[in-house]
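Hi F.,

I've been meaning to write this up properly since the lab meeting, where we talked about keeping a consistent format for the predictions we share between groups. The idea is simple: the sequence comes first, exactly as it goes in, then the structure tokens exactly as they come out, then a line or two of notes. No screenshots and no reformatting. I'm using this chain as the first example so we have something concrete to point to.
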Amino acid sequence: RRVPVPAMNPYTSALRIQVNNSIGCGYLVGPDLVLTAGHVASDPDGTPYQGITVEAGVTQGKPTHPASVIDISLAPTIDRDPASGNDWALLRIDRPLGQVYGWLECLDLGPNELNTLPVEIVAFSGFKDDVRSELRDFQHAYVGPGDIRDVGANIVFHACPMWGGSSGSALLAWKDTKPYVVGVGSAGVDVQGEVL
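Output, unedited:
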């Protein structure tokens, strides 16, 4: 079930990314670092897009605070196949938005531990036909709890709700009451009820 995110940490770290007349998601993982999907930040050949803007504060119903991307680090072997696990990018932005909105640490967890933790996805969606009017037009982030279904090499199958525009969203896990980014949304693929 998707619900609008509350205007509090860790959800204020969710970013809307505007690039090439499209919208994706990202998450602050440092004062000026954003984690997103590689296909949000580059073309199919792995060439980084120019003119990428990230926006913070979208979830709070106030004017957004934009920042420009000044550097892009792509997965060493970017692969647009969601099953590859190599669809990620780290963006450096020109303003330390994390000092205002906060950021989350990334945590690399093994399958045994990841399977025991509560997880949720934080993303934007924007289909005009979305039955949830408050989630239309990429104006509000949503949080969608779920669980881990399977963990492979560099890939996590989960049952958190993904929707159009959620590429680059953060998969959060709560460990000892602290949230961590444990994955980045690449694609929503229904595989016998599981979302990739």
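Notes:
The chain has a mean pLDDT of 82.
Residues 159 and 193 are 8 Å apart (CA to CA).

If this format works for you, I'll send the rest the same way.

G.
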